[in-house]
User: Fold these one by one.
Assistant:
Number 1:
Amino acid sequence: MISVKLDHVSKMFGTVKGVEDIDIHIRSGEFFTFLGPSGCGKTTTLRMIAGFYYPTEGRIMFGEQDVTYLPPNKRNIGMVFQNYALFPHLTVFENVAFGLQVRKQSKQEIKEKVDRALKLVHLDGYGNRRIDQLSGGQQQRVALARALVIEPQILLLDEPLSNLDAKLREETRVEIKRLQLELGVTTIYVTHDQAEAMAMSDRIMVMKNGVIQQVGTPQEIYNRPNNEFVASFIGESNLLEGIVEEIHDQQIRVRFSSDWVLTGLQENVAPKTTLTKGEKVKISIRPESIREAKTEENGENIVRGKVALSEFTGVSVNYITQIGELQLKSMFINLGNRVYQRGEELALSIPKESVYFLG
Amino acid sequence: MKSGSTFTPSTLRRRTSFTSSPYFVYVLVSPLFLVLLAYVIYPLFQTFIESAQIDGSFSLQNYKDFFSLGNSANLEALWTSIYISVFSVITCGIVGVGMAFLLERYEFPGRKILSVLVMVPMALPPLIGVLSFDFLYGKSGIIPRALQALLGLDQVPFSLSGIGGVLVVHTFTMYTYFYMTASTAIRGLDPSLEEAAASLGANRFYIWRRIILPMLTPAMVASALLVFMIAMASYTAPLVFGVERTMTMQIYLSRTNGDLDMAATQSTILSVVSILFLIIMRWYQNARNYQNMSKGVSVHRTEVKSKVGKYISMALSILGVVILLLPILVLIILSFSEDGSWTVEILPTKYTFAHYIELFTDSETWKPIANSLEMSSLATIGNIIFGVAAAYAAVRLKFKGKTLLDILIMVPWALPGTVVGINLIAAFSQPNVFSFNQVLVGSFWIIPLAYFVRHLPLVFRSTSATFMQMDVSTEEAARSLGATWWYSFRRVVFPMAFSGILVGALLAFVQGIGEFVASILIYSADTTPMSVAIFQRMYAFEFGTACAYGSLQMLLILIVLFISQKIQGNSNITI
């Protein structure tokens, strides 16, 4: 297995910027995800790694080898396309065998490897089928087998689940992760689905408008978002704007337009951000980190407001609480407690360590 | 996965391939431009030069002659061509759109058979279609004579001749262009739009005026331009019905009278008109188009329910079927008639199978068939090679001059066959680089070259349509699996596009078999193709042999149409 390094890679399409200054190092055997909304440059980045585009600037390294301008057929990559891109005029077996035939392996060897690959994706016995005789999920697995059978150094997956229905998506997601762990192949995964990214990845790169927003493990990305975009794109978040009132003893106190004050910790300030007293600051609070306070409870980070929306989903109870001019989303796991109705007063406690300063 | 891959990094680095260079595109594309330059642009240019020269010096005298009021033959021809074309558009529009609405929107006895036969005129080679109309409805045609005998008249009650005849033949052979676009457009109309209009209180008439007709306009305009162009280029109908004052006929007459300068001048003017229309058409196609993609309920055909309506529609269906099938029928009947036996009778009196035997046994009769097969095959092979390469380049590659390639390749499609013939004569009656220092005119190669030029757009268009439908990612998948450009073209792109290529190639082949318009200008005794042989036999009053040739042509076309239908029906190639 091999590591992948993107060394300050940029891609221009004419005068339009595709991606800008992508600088990452994907470790050998890692499951690495490019995550972002459509048009954020994630597919462009993947296609540069595959060799379908050449970067305008920067270098791409596979291990010690500079592959920046190497054509795709010489990179020894396995790629699964969004629409699978199976060859409709070939059978399942022939599709999977294609890459091995290119490599001029013996008939015997090809047969063994293809059979093994089909078994790996639970399609043994389907070799003679035509592509249009397969369901979407089966086609997906043929595409995966075709990519894996050539024993690629790197596996590239371009939104492989987006054409499947919800249930199949879940199944295939588990399947892909299992294969990746079993084979230990360095995998780069492109998706716009944050849940998918969180569930599968070792690390995630969040992108927007061709620029990296944050690189980190799912926990880091979720719990310590770098900026407003990451905070709102991944999971739900309360994004509030206040004014820094006091910075003292590793604690920061923020006053909001209405009459409430929150205290957070210095360690939760986003990197490359410095806060100054009297300046505006954006903070992010995850709805599920907010707790219900006792009605009579008073003290730091406890706020009261009127329930504006109450939503019982079974798993949880979601509230939107009106606090002065601000609204706060909160989510409590359903433990059989009383569900507050619209108009009732609700006291909320916001733990200091759950307040993130985005700058 | 375990190691054992045959592509280790060190072997990768050494193989830098020629095909991955950014200039490879131009290596691939430059032969295409060269061929188009040599056999489309250069001949066009030579014709222009010839028209603008008198005794080797530049002069516009030919154009002055053309537009001079003293000798009005040319202006009259231009005017006649234009007004025949305008009327052809109108009649074809009425018949084609009417048929489309009838067959798409109504259910009546005989609809199914009629909707199959409605495309029959497409299967007739140009010369055959006109000849069969002459046999059927001409001055001594079967129908007028039959009516005369039936009604006991002194003279035939009606007959097709002159401009009227040309218009009837044009309507019969060209309404299919309107029919095809109109029926596609009608099928594409979202019925919920009409329902929405009705729910807003619009009545039938209002819906037609405000919804249906405006939405059909783009399709109608496109077909109108197309029919206008084809009618301008029409040569066989005026030839058979004796309308000498059309542009194509004037070119032919100038050429046979040896006035090459005037033929070149007339050709140039006709080329300008045709290319102008090509440009207008392309511009229009790029302009707005109302294609709606919405799914949902499909249109239900309104059933004709009343008894009277049923009888009327059945009678009209039968009439339609008869009119559509008669040209083929008459051709087959006449192909069995003894040459010279049919004079004043309604139908020939003596029949024989000899003509068909002769076709394949008499070497003189067989020669034109062999010629046509050989020349059309050669042209088709050329078309496949260049058509596929050009289509691939136009759809998949990025290079400077792509729009130019696109336009250049469509120019021969816009040019009337007569003009193509004159152009080739102008270009290749002296040796030059492009003809490898040979005089091509009078040689074997001039006709295959004409077929190649005329039918290149057919292969190009059907292939590029296939390439456009094909997902780029299949080719990328092959590349990602280690295939070189050539390997993936051979194993993936070509096999996937094969059906599209084959359909285009077959079409080009049968068009070559039936080609008449350019052939008549450039054939020589040794290279007489089938259509010219038909024409010669006609004028030698050997109707039987002529029709046997014609039936053979039709048989070939039907076989090809059948095969293409099968191929297109089977190709669920694009997922």
Number 2:
Amino acid sequence: MSVTPKVLAGYGAILLLGLLAPVLFPNFLFQLAVLWMMILFALTWDIMGGQMGYNSLGNIFFFGAGMYISAIVQVGLYYNVGEYTSVYGGVQVDFTPHQYFTGLTLGIIAAALGCTVFSVIFGRIVFGLRGPYFAIGTLGVALAAGELMGTWEWVGGGGGIALPVYPYGPDQRARLFYYMCFVLAVVTFVFLKWLYSKRFGHAINAIRDDEEKAEAMGIHTLRYKTIAFAVAAFFLGMSGAIFGNMIGFIEPLEVAFPTITFGIFMVVMTLLGGKGTLWGPVLGAVVFHVVKEATWTYMLGWQWVALGALIIVNIVFFQQGILGWAAEKWPERFGIVVDKSRTAGGR
Amino acid sequence: MVTHGNGLIECHGVTKTFGGVVANNDITLNVPQGRITGLIGPNGSGKTTLFNSIVGYHPIDAGSIKFKGEEISRLLVPQIARLGLMRTFQQTRIYSKMNCVDNMLISLPHREEGYRSLLTKYPPEAVERAEELLEFVGLYQKRYLISGELSFGQQKLLEFAMALISEPEVLLLDEPTAGINPTLING
């Protein structure tokens, strides 16, 4: 898509809406923050799943790992983590504003870097797997991580760990975390748009289309896979750190490694919007989140059934997703060249 | 099989088995530089298996394979390709969701590629070279078409152009004319 005044105006409108959301929708700030997080989930899943053809079911691992790394850094800078978790509620812990913001900043940085390192190690183990084996292999790592963290008493075990309390008022806190989610999602989008326009984008698309061929042509497939996974891990790690602080309390299975909710949602959102495209995951995340919140509000008790129905319709009737369907219907609008010299079916 | 001597590709006593099937048995082969060498045999005689062994897809059970005097039988497929030894496939293999120009650009040599180059764009001269070769194989008019939309013969031509732009020192063509209209082969 070329940068025309119309496209620029579209970007500007989205940015403006994002910036003004706390003023326009002050009562929905938490949900809007989660929406930006969902967009980030879908965008980062699409790096591997859509652009490179490696369907990971374990990306949520980096979200949870980022959350825990950040918590350990934030607490560990000022307290003994083991004592902090074991005497939680028994002693008064107090973080000054300076300590809070220093911890939060360093925690987010450590989460991003730590998850990048994890992704390189994790990648070396799972990149030998292909297709469904890769999907199950990555899922196994995410599930195991949740269970393992539940047994690690030093970080609170199954009881979880409380993050330092925000030192100012709740409204300011809501706005801060909203903007953090918003900025992170926008930065992720811009970074991926830039990255896909380089040789890197061509190479991971080649791996998606035919990895064996790509290897035969001398492409460093392992290098590209490692970088793609690392980019996803970097942003997911940061998102985990921010989300953990936004929630205020980390529990291993439901909050840090929610494989059957967020872990699956990121796949579903991408498929819904159209995988392998830049805007598809964004669109999918918005539609999915709105439907999810609407069903949770108006169809309580049936919300999972409604979401399941949405997934079935998506998978059965239009696997290419909303953008993929639109590109098939109006290819010229998506910059796709159509061979008009050929008749239908004539090869 | 074939001759001995100092060639670009030298296979000595290459053996490859799949379970109880001996696909290649003690193959000795010498491919000299600057010549077109053909490998002929009936269906199932192990020609493709030997290709796969030479380029690293099937690690051999015994023997040695040398390229420019260097043992390559333990190297990985991309490492062998980056030495300049490439192959095409019996079944056409292209990047079917990418357009023809992008198929060509991704096939440029990866020998000197460092991490920094991943974050660069292809220079205009690379695009020009890609378009020149597409014109050479008669696909210039379809250069921005998604390659999966091309006919079988056109895909074969695209694959050939991709092999050319990768500037291989040796190109192994596995049944390059299989399934192609004779007019296209001669033309």
Number 3:
Amino acid sequence: MSRSPDSSTPAVETRGLRRSYPGPRGAPEVVALAGVDLRIERGEVFGLLGPNGAGKTTCIKILNTLLFPSGGEARVAGFDVVREANEVRRRIGLVSGGENSGYGILTVRECLWMFSQFYGVPSSVAWPRIDRLLEVTGLTPLARTRINRLSTGQRQKMNFARGFVSEPEVLFLDEPTLGMDVNAARMLREFVLSWVRERDGRTVLLTTHYMAEADQMCDRIAIVDRGRVLASDTPAALRRSVQGGQHVELEVREGGAAESGSIQAAVGVPVVWGAPHPERGTRTLKFRLPEGGVLGDALRALEEIGVAVQGISTRETSLEDAFIHIVGRALDDEGAE
Amino acid sequence: MAMTGTFARMRTAAWLGWQVESNWADPVIFFIYMIARPLAVSLTLAAMYAATRSTATEGAAFAGFYVANAFHAYVNTMVVGMGWAVFEEREEFETLKYVYVSPMGLVTYLAGRSFVRFVLGSISALLMLLVGWFALGVRWEWSGVQPVFLAITMVAGLGATLSAGFLLSGVAMVLTRSAMTVLEGTMLGLYLMCGVIFPVDLLPVWLRPLSYALPFTWWYECIRRFLLGRGSSAYMNTLSDAQLLGAMLAVCAAFAVLSWLVYRAMDRLARTLGRLDQTTMF
């Protein structure tokens, strides 16, 4: 008998969640999660953003009852993932991207129906839902094709659809668009957003290392690295958390007398040289204006030390800037582990 | 209501099991394979019998081992099939984790998958008995058959087979590359240890207690006693019908409890080690 959870409980809550793996051949243990605290409210699209090895997938596995934590506590829809795993399983769905999974001997439609039965969805409800999902994922023409005849991308779309056949309360999307073409990924992102908005109280926990995906889809984001949550807030708030104003990119003439040190002194903030443009004899100079700084003042200071500015562009702080600021390196940097 | 849901899910798993079992070939080839396999076992046994007949083996003894071989089809198909299902789901289809985290649960799923194996095992056993009856002279007196004891024997034996299937499924959850070796080794061990092909009395003395601890040893002996009217083990022949049946029920019950405990322990170990979505072979 399924128990009724208290609807005021968060969709996902972890306290001091830890997980470590034994190191190979006597090496020190590998810490995948080092005390993660999360609180995801019902109805949210929440993102876990971090480099490979940050602990995102380990966290998802624990929340899906596939893996025991080494310590701490995790609850999904109000139920403990260790002690009340069966209650958790009634309420969740899982989609893992970049996989080639599926029963090759079944057709796409059969496979989706089978999983709907595993979740106890009546066939009369399941079939229209499956047809709608096939339409959304563009698989309608392949509905009666055996899975072993599908390309990797088509299998991924089928697996994506599989996650929705049971209309779960909490849906875990682990890198769902990994390896998908741009159009398919965009279409599926839009579908997830409409799915959440049209259904009261449905929650999505998304892991990704695509900045744009997290920025576009998530109500809130937790930036994780080396098993720890470094920051958690709305994308806008994370961007605002980066001190400073506009990002400025100047195209300056090469061969000027001014050196980096004097340029830095002139604009008053660290500068970074970007790519040269030999065909125009220029090079890009990047810096972020200090809070309240005026671009005109910086340009005048540069002119005074003999820097010839050929072009100017500015942009607001991006999520990527916030990520670099918080984590200390870019998402795809070496050493991300 | 919950029971209805469980049966519906089990039925779906059985449907999948049938697709997996039957879809590797077209229906005609599958049908031929279904007949050819038990027929080959029957002929192999007949050849072995013919080779040894002039020396030691009597016709009645042959009938006892032939019948045990026929029912061993359940162990071969169900036990290996359930262990293999876990291995196949994780390594080949990469779907084990999705089945595991569904509300159906792996236990219901495996029970459903085992049903198809049960049907295939039944067909195999029936075909072997028919070949034995009509071609090899493996017959019994219908008046000597003890239907109630035999029915109880069959239920308990099939229950033990299902238990062994769960035990090996649990082990397959934890093992990775070595899972297939363990499955095949277990099947060979059971074939040699349980009085399927020769009497338990021929085992080394130190190995016999292990043989008597296995439910299949008692199951096959009960089938021989209650169907053919004659057992094969000197020790078991000293027991009355009721004692033999009681001993078999006790061993099967103990084995079922042990298998379930091992399955649960392996389930927990698999979640501790993170084995449920590990692929290693393909």
Number 4:
Amino acid sequence: MREDSTHKSYKIRGTASDKVLTVVVIIFLLSFTVVTLYPVINTVALSFNDGIDAVRGGIYLIPRKFSMKNYKTVMEMQNIWTGAKITVCRTVLATVTSLIANALLAFVVSRKRFLFKSGLSLFWVITMYVNGGMIPIFLLYKNLGLTGTFHVYWIPGMISAFNMLVMRTYMEGIPESLEESAQLDGAGYWTIFARIISPLCKPVYATVALFIAVWQWNSWFDAMLYNRMKTEYTTLQYELMKLLSSVMQQSGSAENAKNGAATITPVTIRAAATVVTMLPIVCLYPFLQRYFVTGLTIGGVKE
Amino acid sequence: MAQAKTAKKKINKFSLKEMKRQTFLMIVSFFMVVYGIIFYYWPLTGWLMAFENFKPKKGLLGSKFVGLDKFKFLFEDDVFIKVIRNTFAMGLINLVSTTIMAVLFAIILNEVRRAWIKKPIQTISYLPHFLSWIVVTGILHDSLSASGIVNDLLLKFGFVNQAINFFAFPKYFWGIVAFAQCWKETGWNAIIYLAAITAIDPNLYEAASIDGADRLHKIRYITLPGIKPTFMILLLMNVGNVLNAGFEVQYLLGNGLVQSVSQTIDIYVLKWGISQNDYSLGTAAGLFKSAVSILLIVIANEISKRYGEERLF
């Protein structure tokens, strides 16, 4: 709304440079949208196309010879089902636990009267910049008995300083008088957290929940590093990676470049598996847009 | 009012009553600190491995201390020198290209006034951020393959006579990685810049119009200076991450033919530490990375302080 009023005046008498700018804006945004969307649409088109027909190439935005066979093939892969199950479980469990843990921590460090407020804050901010690195962390998880179990997906990353800071900034924006009046009525800190602060923090909770859920859904490296041998704890992305990587490694050899179609997994089946893994998030994010935009701008910048 | 005042006076005073009131906060803090020590601070003791010939059986304290031997090995290894170069180069290229793209996108999108054009474009721009690197590299791989869209267009318009195998030549790799980063994160990174632009006082634009400024002038003299603080703080935060920006894409897109330019420190750590079981060497490489990252943050912060800009701490 604000922008409308700012630009109104010169819209009437545009100079030559304004007209050039308009053309540049249109061309830039058009190509940006095409470059962003095309590969995704192409993948969807391929996933609905007949496998043998697709080898001929030339499929762009719509399938040429429609077929649901690729999805049938993907659905028949047992490891895809296992991966999907584990991925859903870890996403749900980690989102809930991590959200609660981060919210509690953010609540504690945003209490102005808390005695160890700055100490605890610093304790966590340091973890953003200093960490043990891949090997010490790997050994730690091994010693704690986390490797080779499902728990390695949700326990270690439960608290993240970044998410905590986003929430803290938001909570600090809530007037202190609310807390004080509740205290006068005899409310303890738990009541203040559960009844007063949390209901006001819905937007930032939604933002952080989305961050965690997306992170969990898209994780593959932990499955590869900690549960490589445990096929029952594989994740969807890791299974997709295995499907795709057999092809990627091949393109390194020159002979294969010429007949790019001769691959281990047909391109259409890879496309179907890709669509299956990205579908839930792609369907969900537009509806959460208003949350993550406000959450990110309020919580993120001010830190 | 009077009560609030007395309560405020007590801030940071270790009165028994205040302590009792804060029991809940203390309990939560206690668990948070225990958790933090286990999962974030305890692994730091593992850095000791970089200075010894670590054997899991002998443990951290029982293994033989070898001083800087592992670091000496690292810096005498030509591969590691190349790995450092790759990490820095790609981190820097990615940082510069993604920042430029985000600022450019935010400014250009801000020039669109019609909400029905702006909103959908913005929604589309977030899409790639929500895709995993597996999906992104998979899609990218197909687009750049011999029968992919890029070669298709190049052949159609006669730029090349034969399809290029982009993943077989080291010269393309850094560019591909930078493109992948930009493709994935431009819309997402632009969110903060767009918010910063919205926060600029509209009167400034109004006044500029009266003085006869055209849109380009306004971008240059109002919008760009307006987002400078945001730009600086994001730059500062990302400088420390330059060395961290190098794992997933390179790991997923790399192959034997481009190894000399695709390997980064993290991949090197994975290769030596996990696959070859040389924990000490892997830790040494990781420690080197952490040390340089911290150094970069401190330097960036100092420079920023000197020029009177925003700073992190």
